[in-house]
Design a protein that fits this description.
The chain is an all-alpha fold and about 270 residues long. It has one domain (about 1-265). It contains 13 helices and 2 strands, in the order ααααααβααααβααα. The longest helix has about 30 residues, at about 50-80.
Amino acid sequence: MHNIVPGFLTVERLSNFNNKLLTTTEYFTHFLLVNSPLIYTIYTNQFNTQIFLFSYFLCGFFQGFINTVLYYISDILFFGKLVDVNEWKKTKFYEIVVYNTDATYLYVIGAMAYTSYTVVPKSLQWTLEYPGYTISSLQLIYLFFLHDIFFYIIHFGVHKIRCLRIPHLKWHHECPFEIGNSRCAIATEGSEGLLRDLYSATIPTYIISYFHGPFYGYNWILYYSFYSFWAMYIHTGKNKYHLIHHSNNSFNNYGLYYLSDFLMGTLKL
């Protein structure tokens, strides 16, 4: 049960994360760029407290709590035991997974959500006003299908562009399911992971906002929780669909939910 305490909020992890952020130019630059909307609104005196609290605390910290519990559930449900942390630490993937996790919940998801309320054109912006059961449900359904399409496009591109394929295979495909369990889902180079795993789900919300009214922000937490657990499941090695993609023949099954692969003729079961 100790794994339910979010690792990204422990003193040691916070200290290590801050040291990396302050001493590594790449990480610090990334932090500034991703959080530039927040910095801009503070600078121009347009800062919105309600949106900040929702974005960074609910979408960030709270989502981190949810995912920590989901990892625990995933370990128990699919393996009958918790991940062996000592064995996991021996792999070359451990540190990048830890950093990606910490960055995601400490500022990346919050920055993404804050951006979706403040910087994008008004026709694409999210809303905190509940649109009603019907519209809310339809938005979740649209997001489910659109996310699969955008994830497929980005993931397919990563595999076909040589300079992206090599680091993708090195950091993601080589991650050992039998040791890392579902944590291999975020074993990836940071920028690629941000684009493939987060913005592939964010871009569809803007499309939904444009054609179907403002996207309801709380739907994001609900959907991202579902997506996170699904990503954990398919990276346990228990899902044959995604296991085929991670085999030596990684030219099939690029999508998330089978649909895009079926439409594009790359589905292999």
